[in-house]
What does this fold into?
Amino acid sequence: MRIAVIYGGKTGEHEVSQVSASSVARNLDSEKHTVNLISITKEGEWFLQPQSELKRIKEDPKAVLSDGKTDVRIAVIPGGGVKTGFCKVEEGKILPLETDIVFPVLHGTYGEDGLPQGLFEMAELPYCGCDVMSSAVSMDKEKTKQIWQTAGLPIVPFVTIHRRERDDDEAFASIMKKIERDFEWPVFVKPCKAGSSVGAGKASSKEELVAAVDEALLWDDKILVEPFVEAREIECSVTGFRDITSYIPGEIIPSHEFYDYDAKYIDPDGAALRIPADLEDDKIREVRDIAIKAFKALDGCGFSRIDFFQDKKTGAFFLNEINTIPGFTNISMFPKLCEASGLPYGELLEKLMALGIERFKAMRSLKTSRK
It folds into this structure.
């Protein structure tokens, strides 16, 4: 197959994407496939990387993909003609870059929020992962929680704050009163549409809450405030299109105060990963069952990682969030959980590409006209 691995992007998770994509590129079978690397700069420019970049990544297990500009720009052209899909723009010429499957390794905004997925759909390009709707909804933590709540799945209570409410003194004061009335300190604050704990913070007083709200609003126009739950952090990988599979869950044991951005990606000792999670068999089945229901409730397809809290006092599980393009780094939970369940990294990538093609064919078989 001819695979296009896309990474980088206009996002606060640009560097995380580079690391994840490096692992993906390193583990794709170059003898079996043609792998093209497409980098999106922080300014939103798309460039085709030389094959020497792929060779460099393959030869050095610690190397990270570059997002540098090259002489070959990439355009995405819809329309269904000869020069559609990915096209190389070089020296004034536009030539097709033949692609059988797109593997987007784009975390956060402009990545797993449905925007590139919509572009791929218009250009008739098969791609790995969730479709436009499930990507967009899953990126919004408020909408995700509302759907899960409607489906009868367990969630942590929350309060939403919009930027317009923060700018309205009366409205903001009313929201603060509600938080102080309904929740106990500490509380967590997080942007609705940012991933990897970017912009997230913990507040133990009204003053700290105001500061955390202002920080989170730098990353999104809508944020969530949730009560603190003294909990274990359990994660479960899910794959599938029409038949959904969940994998053995793992546990994140952060050495930081909570599992923040630094603990996830910067500090090599930021967290311990316990795989499998130390849970009784019936609890493991419960997590895997809820993960499948959560994925289906959002019309998920392809793959995702479902994150849970387990209350240390009661043992109850609460859905925290879903990541439709989870980390693929060498320390990331998603591939590690699949591997612990008997699906090695290389085979996992093959499975995800096969699922993307299966969904593409299924959707293209549907009628679009009465004629």
